[in-house]
Amino acid sequence: xxxxxxxxxxxxxxxxxxxxxxxxxxxxxxxxxxxxxxxxxxxxxxxxxxxxxxxxxxxxxxxxxxxxxxxxxxxxxxxxxxxxxxxxxxxxxxxxxxxxxxxxxxxxxxxx
Length: 112
Hints:
Number of domains: 2
Helix content: 55-70%
Structural class: mainly alpha
Number of strands: 0
Order of helices and strands: HHHH
Low-confidence stretches: none
């Protein structure tokens, strides 16, 4: 049996990279619907439904959010190291944490 003739030829590509976890998730979803992963993704992309936008973060300054993220990363590294070494938090850490909390409160009040 010959392949059916398509009215519109697919001659454009959209390439994207996925993590292993994302790829496995797509493969599992497509298998449940007995579709090839590429057909499943095409159907999902072209489905006529509203796109969910990420949760609104108010009007916080992107630079503020970046610095806050960096602070959080550094604090996580400090906490991890202290836990591994089974050490108590140094005295100077408590006022620093309070100052960071105040900055977060101020940024949230100014930005939203």
